[in-house]
Amino acid sequence: MDTAIDCMPCFMKMAVRGARLAAPDDHAAHERVVRKWAAMLPDMDFSQSPPALARTLNRLICDETGCGDVFEEDKVTSNREVMEVLPDVKKVVDASDHPLATALEAAIIGNYIDRGVDHDFDWAAELARLEKVLDEDMVREFADRCRAGADVLVIGDNAGEIVLDTLLVRQLQSAGCRVTYSVRSHPVLNDALMADARMVGMTDLCEVVESGVDTPGTVLERCSEAFISRMKEADVVVCKGQGNFEALHGRWPGAFFAFKAKCARVAEQTGKPVGCSVFGRF
Questions:
Q1: What is the pLDDT of residues 3-26, one digit of tens each?
Q2: Which of 58, 77, 89, 158 stands 20 to 30 A from 202 (CA)?
Q3: pTM of the entire structure?
Q4: Taking 90 as the threshold, does the pLDDT of residue 252 lie above it?
Q5: Residue 154 bridge partners (DSSP)
Q6: CA separation (Å) from 243 to 112, 115, 132?
């Protein structure tokens, strides 16, 4: 998915928010980041996906502020907040007539916890009223492919969200699948790293690997060769998050995408309203 002029307001908001978070009291640094980023945008290659361009912005913020992981504290807080509600959500999943579908829905709601877009959300309230909102035919197709012996790769997205992904991993394992979960290799936005996987217990649950990327989405050109091989070997690939959709839409045939549609352009691409849970193959 390429970058459009509709992405520009989000990019500018990301620059302001990221600079202020990285160096709260350094107003000069905030201005440098915003001015330099605004000057760089006209020369950007818009044929690249938004996550590919976001990598450049992340690097700029780190260089101008000296902050290596802008959202480090934010990620820890998000993980802790979601871990507090996890037992209650797990009870709902376990009591469901279709626990895999319910776990998948909960994991998608977790994708609201995204610092790359500017939106209002209440993920806790939505979790409290889990409903059957996913396409039943698509969920059925997914369940049919995730049978005993299937090798499933779940490509993760954000911190906080990763906590709810453990419910999905557990259900896939209950179906007899071998599950591998992937995280980013370098800090970018609030995307989950190996440290987050350890914090929330994902590393105790299944094999966790790094994708090699330093982008808020699985940009194939930034992936390690080992991870590309892992993607090719998987029987089922589940891509969590809008960033992974933007990076992999049309580039990895057969992949399932599971995320919240957070902007009008992605909503148009998927045929779903903004704020809707999206699950499908596009």
A1: 999 899 999 999 999 999 999 999
A2: 58
A3: 0.93
A4: yes
A5: 181, 238
A6: 12, 11, 24
